[in-house]
Structure formats: structure tokens, C-alpha cells
Amino acid sequence: MHLRGSRRKLITGAGAVGAGAIAVFALDACSADGSGMGGEDAAAQTADVLSLKDFDSAADIWDAMLDGNQRWADGGAVHPDTDVALRESLAEGQEPRAAVFTCVDSRVAPEFVFDTGIGDLMVTRTAGNVYDPLVSESVSYGPAALEAPLLVVLGHQKCGAVTAAHEALLAAEEGTELEEHEYALPETVEALRAAYEASKGESGDPVDAMIKANVLLTVQALKEHPNLAELVADGELTVVGGVYSLETGLVTEVA
Ligand SMILES: [Zn+2]
Predict the structure, then answer these.
(1) Pick the CATH number of 87-255 from 3.40.50.300, 3.30.70.260, 3.40.1050.10, 3.90.1150.10
(2) Residue 177: what pLDDT?
(3) Window from 10-19, 158-167, 232-241 with minimum mean pLDDT
(4) Where do the annotations place Zn(2+) binding (predicted)?
(5) CA 102 – ligand 1 centroid, Å
């Protein structure tokens, strides 16, 4: 049985009929009654369909991650690739399929949010997903050194760091008194100044606009990072931005 081959075909087909096809297939495969598929076959095929490790192109990897996110949002996460045998085999080396740069927020764990396994994602996290030269080296390591073809910058709804930065920068601008915070993050506030400025005048909630602006500015900056610019220019790296909703569990791509 050529599971890998058939799965690739399935993924190729999914591009034409919509990304939902993979998730539907996966749900069918793990349905309790087996729905026409033998128990072992179902288990094998489910595991095969859900592994991020078999995807090569950035577009397929991102589609698979969004399918995993849909499973997570729907309460159908299967936590693939977490078995002992895989863990042991990965001791020989890693080949992460994507790098993810996101916030330290305890509610935004990328392996859960995208329903991926061990060895799939190289994750860097800072408060408000702000970067500096040290951080951006870590973010670039997966794509530059380990050939991960996808880099995801993931902001999130109700980000405390962005909210606090918005509050501080607005107060400074308006010359109003700011309530003193016990755990102020002055460097983080400063790093978010560009997003604050860029989001001025946007409609809707100003913090939401700043979260989105921060993602977009970070995507652009990482595309121009010395370690990554050539990979992006050569089409070997795709950088995408998204915002995660704490309420729905869904990631929305931003552009
Ligand atoms: Zn946050």
C-alpha cells in the first residue's frame, strides 16, 4: 500500500476542490464506526493524512496547518505525530516543515493551534511577537539552516502585550497619566511603536488594528532579513501572517 503516494494525490486534488477536503477525509477516517474503512487501515490512513512531514511545498504545508487549525477549532484535534517511535527516530535529526513566530501567551501554543506533532514546527515566541536582532536570528534558523519552506508570523486576539503597548503609547501621545503597571515591558512597548503608528486611522478596534499591523510589519521585516531575503527572492521561502482568535480557535490569514 502506498499511503504516502495516495495522500499526496489527495492533497493535490484538495487544492482544486478546496482545503476542506482533507479535514473531511480525516474526520471520516477516524469516525468511530469506521465508515467503510477497516480499523487498521483507518488508523494508518488517518496518521498518514495528518502528518505535516510529508508536505514539501509551502502552500501544501500552510493548507495542512490550516486544516489542523480547523480541527482544533472544531474540537476535533487528533494530536498527530506524538508517539514514542517517532520521538526516538527524530533524535537522529529534525526537518521542521515550518517556522512559527508568535506570542508567549499560554493560550496560543502553535502545536495545539495547528494540530501538529513533534518535529513539525520550529517555534519562536516573545511577548507580542516582537523581534530584535537576537530574536530574528532564531526565527530565521528553521528556514535558513533547516530548509523549512514556510514561516508563519502569528499574532492573536486580545494580546496583552499589544494592549499594554497601545495604552502606553496613546497615553504618552496624549500626555495623560498612565496607571503604573507592576510588570511593565518598556522594550516591548518600544518595539510595538511602529505597529501603533501604522495602525492609526484604521477602522474598528484600535488594538485589533495594531495586532494586525504588527503581524504585517513583522512579515515584511522578516522577508527582508539578511538570512532570509535571498530564500524569499528565490521562491524557496514563503512568509505568511495570521491572527489567532482566542474565542473561535481559528487563525485568519492577514495580507
Ligand atoms: Zn500576546
Answers:
(1) 3.40.1050.10
(2) 81
(3) 10-19
(4) 103, 105, 156, 159
(5) 8
